[in-house]
Amino acid sequence: LTRTTSPKVWRQARRNMQMVFQDPYTSLEARMPVWQLVSEPLYINGERNEHVLRERAEELLLRVGLGRDDLDRHVFEFSGGQRQRIAIARALIGGAKFIVCDEPVSALDVSVHSQICNLLLDLQQEMELTYLFISHNLSLIKHITKHMAVMYLGTVLECGSTEEIFRSPECPYTQALISSILQL
Known about the structure:
Layout: H1 7-15, E1 17-20, H2 24-27, H3 34-44, H4 50-63, H5 80-92, E2 98-102, H6 110-127, E3 130-134, H7 138-144, E4 147-152, E5 155-161, H8 162-167, H9 172-179
Parallel strand pairs: 1-2, 2-3
Antiparallel strand pairs: 4-5
Helix pairs in contact: 3-4, 3-5, 4-5, 5-6
């Protein structure tokens, strides 16, 4: 993808990629009901049947742990964890297989943090998803990833299997990051 400038190639690739942002409150339109927020990617790609849009939104909301009663509510009526579930449903509705998760749990309290991580892992297995998981939390990275890259100032310093990097980090920066993990 980085070597192509073809709009057709990019358009097709974008349909298979979505993003879950750190702060779902600011990344989701507060004036739209949840069913419209979640189904908007389908609308953008040409689906205009409101019944179909609502039905698909409901299906995804149920899959991420929310209910039918939530379809007509607005994002400001939900907790942070519920908002993140809405953002995840929105990322999945179009059938994307590659999801960029930019600090998706950093703004959540610890109990919700764990629930969202487990949801992401369950969805990854059920739907055969690939995540690009961006985080400063190395404990989380160790738990949720199989492969990782350590970046500093936009440059990849080290990459490989998560297990190998944690067992034997080569880069001094990676060593410092790993040694700073709080051990309980």
